[in-house]
Structure formats: structure tokens, C-alpha cells
Amino acid sequence: MKKGLIMIGGILTVFLVILIIWGIGKQNHLQAANERQKIDTKIIKQRFVPKNVPAGSQSDYTIQLSMKKNGTFHVNVTVEIKNTSADSWDKLLFYFIPNLFTEKNDPTAVHPATVHFYTLNVDGRAHSYRLVKDKLSIPLTKKLPSGEKTNVSFSYDFTVPKEGKRFTQRAGNFYLAQFYPMVATYRHHAWNAAPYQSMNSETYHTAFSDFKVTYAIPKEYTITSTNETDTFPSKSKGAFSVKKVKEVFIALLKDPYVTTANVNNTKIRIFGFNKEECEVLRTEAASAFAYYEHKIGRYPRKQLDLVLGEMGMEYPGIVTAGYLHNSLLDLESLKREVDHEIAHQWFYGVVSNDPYYDGWLDEGMATFAQGLFNVYRSKKAIDYTYIDKVVKEYNKYPVNLPLAQYPPTQRSTYTYTKASSELFKWFEHRGGRNGAEQFLNTYYHFYQNKEVDSKEFMRFTKAYFAMKNDAMFHGWLTAQ
């Protein structure tokens, strides 16, 4: 219990700055982001060419998912992997996160997951593999040269733990995060797969990929997922394809209440089990989404789903909200969580980064965007005095250390709160909220469907502000 309270206390500091500057106000007319892009990008393109971080691997997934009434899932997955690095590979590396929740790896779990592999083939032939915690490695009998492809297929069963993290079941509903083998990125002559961290962070990192998914589920469930054409109620059998996403998430829900909002050309669907709560959050989600799309840039899909009743988390085309770890949030805190997770559709969902080495580039940027939305809505001035106090108080670490180098309870303090406060501070004398919105708009325009690291962010920022040195990063960003 004490450990849980410490974890919750650490996470709550994430939203400290936002709660200070938040207020309730009537939404004003929003100027479309793409109208400003034509001006801003034309100016910066005269002196800057963006460079994305190469993934080193390129993958296309074909997934067949079926669920039995007893809660057992069967999965067939085929992954076509292309070596886009300059090296020849002697092995392949996948994340297989369900294995973390088995009794072997989580002996204290009351209802652990189970995993049973039937076959694993490489180019149609049975192949050996090694599964340790969340890493599944496959030694290759013949090296895979740069530019070449290979096909790996898996067949396995799993059950979902209760009180798991993201990959979990709650109140008879199933939340299938990272349920399939996920190809790691490859860089610096090695597979890039950080050690799993259980507290306040993501440590898996995947490239933008294409997916084809077929499913068969019991009739009492409806499916909501990364797919932008999901319907409600869904059929018990179906198929969908999605392109250029970092991962696919699926939720299977029993008898949810569903309400919708339409913002521009996007349908926002809210799934929950409390009608009044869903209706309040429909208005909140629509307001936040409208602000982000108009001020930062166009959302790339036709639909965005919000699923209530699970921990706050982002996935492409769908977010979950309701809990902070296993503590149920009150309505006002839930609104803030929804605002934050929706902001991740821009920073994570479209502009990518490695969450282990550069977690601030999605968490800090999403918190910054969320804070700007709160300032816009409240019509209040930004409290730079308070922000300056936060910046000075959290000065022990830069915001872009690898996660393992922070004390676990302070990771979010730096990657969320410190990072967003430093970004706010930049614009005290550079246009305030309007200046910050234009900055995010231009940044988003340059790096859509690309990966960014701290080094590239610093290079972009120096060009944007026409700065010749790194003075503006001193004390909070380090060039790695």
C-alpha cells in the first residue's frame, strides 16, 4: 500500500503546473492550424531541413485474433520485416509484453496471465527462439543483409491478467495493449530494446507500421480499437487495416454506454459505463480535440475513441482514462487526464520518439499542449512566476536522461512537469500563448510520421528562433 501511495504521489506532480493555470472559460473561435503553416514553414524552410531518426527496421503485421467465451485468446501473427539499417542482422528482436504478467515473471499476481506458444516460423520453417521477460529473440541461421526482408509467423494462446498494466481485464472488459510480438527498432549497430520499467513510463519503442487485423469475439462484446472505421455495436467477426501507426490497441467491452461528438471531419466516440460521466467527458474531449487540431495541426484519422474505466493511456486513434494506477479518479481529475491523453495523438501518435531515452518529447510536449489549452480556455494570463519557481525547484536532472537514471518516483516530475515548465518559460518574452502555439504548429508540420530525438529537437528549435548557441537549453536538456 505504501509503495502504491508513493507511485501515485509521484504521478500527481505531473499535472501540478496545469492545475495551477487551469480555469473554466468559454471557447473562442479557433484559427485553423494549416492556414498558419503556409506562412511559418515557408520562413523556416529557408534555413532548415528536418532530419528524422531512422528506425532501422520496417514491419508489416497480419494479425488474426479470436476469443473464446472462457476468456482465452488465440492469435496468429505474421510479420514481414525489412532490414532498413546499414548492417546485416544475425538475429531478430521483438517485445512480447504479455509474458511479463505470467506467474513466472509476476509471482505476486492474484490472477496472472498465461502464454502458450504453438509455433514460431521464420520464412515458413520452424525456428528456435528465446523469451526472457518482455524480450523475444530469434537467432538467424543466415544473416539478413541490409535492404532484405524476412517473414516471421507466431501461433499462441494467452489469457489476460486482472490488475495488469495496460494489458489487463477489469470488470469483465478486456484491454489488449501490446498483445502481439512487436518488432524493436535498430540503431547504433544493435537492436534498441531498453529494459522494462514498471513505474510511470513506457520502455518499448516501435516504428510506424501497417497492420491487417481480423477478429472473432463472443457476441456479448463490442470492439473498439485503433481502427478508424469501427462501428457500434460491432459485429462479432470483422477485419480492418491501418497504416502508419506505432501500434494497435483493442478493447473488448460488455454493454458500454456510447455517446459521440463530431469535430470538423472527425467523429469522437466515448465508451463508458456511467451515462452522466460520458456526456460530461464528451464535451471535454470535443473541446480539447478542437483546440489541438486547430492550433497544432490536422488529426490524421476520421475517428478517435475514448474508453473510460481503465488507466489513462494513449494509443493511435484511441485513448483510455479513468484510473491513476488502480485509484479511481474524480470527475475533474478525469477531465485533465482526458485532455492529456488526447494531446498524445499529436505527440506520440504522429510525431514519434523513443520513450525510454526521450520520454519528455511526448509526455512533456503533451503536457505543454494541454497547459496551453487550459490557458486558452480560462482566458487567464500564464503565471510565469509560478512556472519559474517550478523550474528552479526541479534542477537536479535534465529532462532527457534514460529513464533508469531517474529515481522512479521522480521520472514524471522531470519528463512531464519540468519539461513543460521549461517550454512555457521560453515564450514569456516570445509571444506567450500565441507564440507557443505557432511553435508547436510548425514543429508538428515538419515531423509528421517521423521520429525525433532531443538532438534533433534542439537543432529545430535553434533554427526556429535563429539561435546560434545552446544557451536556451542549459540546465534542462543535455546533448547526448
What can you see in these coordinates?
With 480 residues, the protein is α+β, with helices and mostly antiparallel strands. 28% of the residues lie in helices and 30% in strands. A hairpin with a 2-residue loop joins strand 18 (257-263) and strand 19. The chain starts with a helix and ends in a 16-residue tail after the last helix. Residues 1-32 have low confidence and may be disordered.
H/I helix tally? 10
> Residue ranges: pLDDT <50 for 5 or more in a row?
1-32
The 3D shape can be described as globular
Beta strand %: 25-35%
Task: State the major sheet.
Answer: 7 strands, mixed
Helix content: 25-40%
Structural class: alpha+beta
What's the arrangement of strands in the largest beta sheet?
5-4-8-2-1-14-16
Tell me the span between the first and last alpha carbons.
Answer: 37 Å
Q: Got a strand count?
A: 25
Average residue-wise pLDDT: 91
The Cα radius of gyration reads: 22 Å
List the defining traits of the structure above.
single chain; alpha+beta; 480 residues; 25 strands; six-stranded mixed beta sheet; seven-stranded mixed beta sheet; 30% strand
Annotate the secondary structure layout:
Layout: H1 2-12, H2 16-21, H3 33-45, E1 57-67, E2 73-83, E3 89-95, E4 114-122, E5 125-126, E6 130-132, E7 135-144, E8 149-159, E9 168-170, E10 173-176, E11 182-183, E12 185-187, E13 190-192, E14 209-216, E15 221-225, E16 237-245, E17 250-254, E18 257-263, E19 266-272, H4 275-295, E20 303-311, E21 313-315, E22 318-324, E23 327-328, H5 331-343, E24 351-352, H6 360-378, H7 384-393, H8 411-426, H9 432-446, E25 450-451, H10 454-464
Helix pairs in contact: 3-9, 4-5, 5-6, 6-8, 6-9, 7-8
